[in-house]
Amino acid sequence: MSDRTMSKRLAWLPLLTLLAMLGPVLAGVLGTLAPAFGYLPAVGQTDWTLDPFRKLSDWPGVFSASRLSLTTGLAATAVSLGIVVLITAGWTGTRAFARIERLLSPLLSVPHAAAAFGIAFLIAPSGWIARAFSPWFTGWDRPPDLLIVQDTWGLTLTAGLIAKEVPFLMLMTLATLGQAQNSQSRMVAQSLGYGRVSGWIKTVFPRVYAQIRLPVYVVLAYSMSVVDVAVILGPNTPPTLSVQIVRWMSDPDLMMRLQAAAAALLQLALVVAALVLWRTLEILVSGIGLFLIRRGNRGVLETILRISGMVAALVTSLSIILGLASLLIWSFAGLWSFPDAIPDSLTMRSWMRHGDSIIGSFGQTMAIASIATLIALVLTIGSLEAEHRYGISLNARSTFLLYLPLMIPQTAFLPGLQTLMLGVGAKVGIVPVIAAHVVFVLPYVFLSLGAPFRAWDTRYASIAGALGSSADRVLWRVRLPMLLRPVLIATAIGFAVSVGQYLPTLLIGGGRVQTLTTEAVALASGGDRRAIGVYGLGQTLAALLPFAIATLLPAMIWQNRRGLRHE
Amino acid sequence: MNELEGLCLKSVCIAKDNTTLIDIDVHIKPGEITSIMGPSGSGKSTLLSFIIGTLAPDFDSRGSIVLDGVDVTNLAAERRRIGILFQDDLLFPHLSVGDNLAFGLSAAVRGPERTARVQDALSEIGLTDFATRDPDTLSGGQKARVALMRMLLSEPKALLLDEPFSRLDTDLRAQIRSLVFEHAKARGLPVLMVTHDDQDANAAGGQVIRL
Questions:
Q1: Shortest Cα distance from B182 to chain A (angstroms)?
Q2: Chain A within 8 Å of B75 (Cβ-Cβ)?
């Protein structure tokens, strides 16, 4: 056997990667179908029937829960995208824009639950904003009786989602600007007399949107079906459809699982319908856009649009930053009565009280995140290396497959996956939880590492090969050291994604695996702000720490290597 | 001189999507420099990838590469002992200048001899104190010389040059070119050079193939 046809050791990795990502999703969707139509041997139900759907439609909240899913999802996606477009159109190439860029990665890694708690602490009737304006402006000497957080319309929920989705879409947009010839096109448009905002939207945005379409769909599907943020900021009676699914799944009466499965299918159908609607709107908007471009208007309200873009970006980032600050203060607060802006005293009491249990959850969280991220890294690097060595690829068309597990609502397949595990007698615990985390960690790690890995100059591999290095030696001694920074960033992203997971840990862990996120969200109904402060911060630290390491480590290791410092 | 010595491309034919890019038959004797000239897109670099063993799988190739009488066509890239220099120096940015040179050295060379060989190579190109330097702090000419020595330390049996001087300034260009040619001739290496510069081809003084 000759060397060139030598065993393709890595050739099975791309397939395994797809399996690790899509296997649980498919199994989960199938596992939802059977109980939704009445088949659940575990509780003695073996007749196929439409009863679960009948019971679901008898639930008085079914209409408003479905409506909430649609309105919050569509509104959060449209507003987030709008803010990203305005800030990018109005400010790319400026110093202010560069500053916003630097804020993004840390903001993105803040777990959804921590961000949601922070926002609740800011805007609640007894929150920081009300305190700042009381009593001198509002006249309130006790918190007003207003339903702001958990409002029936889901407005606070939508706002919380926007604050977290803007950094995500922004980062995705930034990644496409180079390819979209951002600065050149903007200059051409401006020299033809178009305003900054109008010129960018008419020339660069169409190319950018073609690249961020799938991330936008992810945002839409996620916003429609999110559970942790909805538990914290969303309405209670009735809650959103996805929150109700989780309530039914947690019901001691196992018969409720039939209804939960039916609701999961409804949630899936709603998301598919919303995606179809969004796609239709895309076509409509591009038609209108073309019409407007042909008219040749040079732009209206330019200044107002630029300012409102900047204000919106500031409000969204400040809502997370100030929210985290209020978590921090609450976690150290002694007596803190309304309307004082700061507590009377600071104390370590809350940290002492929750110390032992938070260290336990921290360890559990980190163990799950490390293993899930390691698995994702091995599969990602293995697949990319297989693509490089044998020309087999998870390329272009397969990008869709990477986004697929992120576009199917978690509540549509995780309940089914849990039921399936129950059916085959598999034990709940940390191992299946890690496997479920991999489903979400893997796409993000792959998306983050894929571009820099593929962009690496393969002539380095040719040189090293000609110098007598085997393909493995090239990978370990040349490629990975040169790609240290992107590998560490992908690792940090993997960690942050895993730390933030709520539903996979709750459902697949059968309530027995406790991470910082499940503990924090469980505190939502109790209203113990000091405990929430402690857990919310712990969760944030767990997600931010790897980012700090990923930023500092390459700078330290490569401090004498100028060629690797500015990547 | 033996018929078998040197680099022999026997009826090499490379095609993509049923379009033939390259069809060549050539014998380069030790110490001889053959130039291949042609417009960009004529498949010159594809031919070099085929010879060093890194041709992408979507190309179809026929023919064989015989080096000093041994058919290396089906050997893995790292076992062919064919060195290559590109127009960029491609020094590994994470390794020091000395470690870059040592990367080319066979693992069979151990201990103090390794350090000595690297040091000798540095002296040979006038960079005696440069072992611990960051390659990115070197001048263009210095980088080109390190890249040449790194390749020579791996003791190749043939040398390929992929427009190796096109990024250098005019005055530096002639200097580096004669350095590379001298070293190749001194070691009796058959050299295949891809270029679009007539001066390179003239300086090489060997056979010129136009695509």
A1: 20
A2: yes
Which residues have C-beta within 8 Å of that of residue A24, sequence separation ≥ 6?
A413, A417, A435, A436, A439
The answer to whether B122 and B98 have CB atoms below 8 angstroms apart is: yes
Instruction: Write out chain A residues lying below 8 Å of B56, CB-based.
Output: 391
A473 CB neighbours in chain B (<8 A) are: 78
Q: Do A467 and B136 touch (CB under 8 A)?
A: no
pLDDT tens, position by position, A268-291: 999 999 999 999 999 999 999 888
The answer, yes or no, to whether residue A387 has pLDDT greater than 80, is yes
Q: CA–CA separation, A88 vs A93, rounded Å?
A: 9
Name residues 270-329 of chain A within 8 A of B (Cβ): none
Q: What is the DSSP string of A280-333?
A: HHHHHHHHHHHHHHHHT---SSHHHHHHHHHHHHHHHHHHHHHHHHHHHHHHHB
Give the alpha-carbon dihedral of A187, A190, A195, A197, to 10 degrees.
-20
Tens digits of residue pLDDT in B20-32: 888 999 999 999 9
What is the four-CA torsion angle of A232, A233, A234, A237, rounded to 10 degrees? 70
Q: Which stretches within A333-429 are classed as H helix?
A: 349-390, 396-407, 410-423
Per CATH, which fold does A13-36+62-332+349-558 belong to? Answer: MetI-like fold (1.10.3720)
Please give the average per-residue pLDDT across A510-529, as a whole number: 90
* Strands across the sheet containing B33-37: B82-85, B158-162, B191-195, B33-37, B208-210
Give B9-63 pLDDT, tens digit per residue. Answer: 999 999 988 888 889 999 999 999 999 998 877 788 899 999 998 888 888 999 9
Interface ipTM above 0.90: no
- In chain A, which residue's Cα lies nearest the Cα of B59? A391
Q: What domains, with CATH codes, occur in chain B?
A: 7-92+154-210 (3.40.50.300)
Which residues are bridge partners to B160 per DSSP? B84, B192
Chain A residue whose CA is closest to B82 = A466
The closest CB to that of B52, out of A465, A481, A564, belongs to: A465
Among A391, A464, A564, the residue with its CB nearest the CB of B93 is: A564
Confidence of residue A394 (pLDDT cuts 50, 70, 90): low
Cβ–Cβ contact A428 with B under 8 A: no
* Chain B interface includes A454 (CB < 8 A): no
Task: Determine the pLDDT at residue B2.
Answer: 58
Could you tell me the residue ranges of all domains in chain A?
A: 13-36+62-332+349-558
Q: Does the pLDDT value for residue A416 go beyond 50? A: yes
A487 touches chain B (CB under 8 A): no
Instruction: Kindly report the pTM of this predicted structure.
Output: 0.89
**pLDDT over 50 (residue B183):** yes
Task: Choose the closest CB to B92 out of A473, A478, A484.
Answer: A478
Mark yes or no for CB contact B83/A467 under 8 Å.
yes
Query: With an 8 Å Cβ cutoff, is B154 touching chain A?
Result: yes
How far apart (Å, rounded) are the C-alpha atoms in residues A317 and A483? 30
What digits encode the pLDDT tens for the residues B107-155? 888 889 999 999 999 999 999 999 999 999 999 999 999 999 999 999 9
Query: What are the pLDDT digits (tens) for A291-330?
Result: 888 888 888 888 999 999 999 999 999 999 999 999 999 9
Find out whether the peptide bond into A238 is cis, omega within 30 degrees of 0. Answer: yes
